Amino acid sequence: MAGRTDCQMPDVTLLGSENTDYLFEYSPSVLEAIDNLHTERDYFVKFNCPEFTSLCPKTNQPDFATLYLSFIPDKKLVESKSLKLYLFSFRNHGDFHEDVINIIVNDLIELLDPRYIELWGKFTPRGGLSIDPYVNYGKPGTKYEKMAEQRLLYHDLHPEPIDNR
């Protein structure tokens, strides 16, 4: 199989651009998708974002997190530079941790229509309390819906030691 050509990626406008705009307000329109060339099999794509920031909606204090995003694509993949710029757009966005995580998953479901997706936000403590919301989604009426239910029930059954916060 040969590599992709530019004409096979007409909707990819950010990757390779020398004029990157960093948007400081929530901007789901920056997300771009590319075709999944391997729809015949299930596989996970995982992104880790150790420098995610958003704002508390009440105090405007910054909230910092590591985000763990995993999904099983169907017909589309998220283009990674657009994902980076999208996550950066939360920098001045005020919302609670749980809301931010759900907003991101909702936007990615709309963009990708994945078979399965999950996002775990591990926020650093403020006031001695950390909040680690987890959300997932499996395409309704498929085995992925059942997978989402099982992963939600057992996602934190064996939590890792917390030694980095």
From TrEMBL:
It catalyses: 7-aminomethyl-7-carbaguanine + 2 NADP(+) = 7-cyano-7-carbaguanine + 2 NADPH + 3 H(+). The active site is at residues 56, 63. This is NADPH-dependent 7-cyano-7-deazaguanine reductase. It holds the Pfam family QueF. Signal peptide: none annotated. Its main location: cytoplasm. GO terms for molecular function: preQ1 synthase activity. Pathway: tRNA modification; tRNA-queuosine biosynthesis. Its EC number is 1.7.1.13. The keyword Cytoplasm applies. It is found in: Cytoplasm. Keywords: Cytoplasm, NADP, Oxidoreductase, Queuosine biosynthesis. Belongs to the GTP cyclohydrolase I family. QueF type 1 subfamily. The keyword Phosphoprotein does not apply. Catalyzes the NADPH-dependent reduction of 7-cyano-7-deazaguanine (preQ0) to 7-aminomethyl-7-deazaguanine (preQ1). Substrate binds at residues 78-80, 97-98. It comes from the Bacteria.
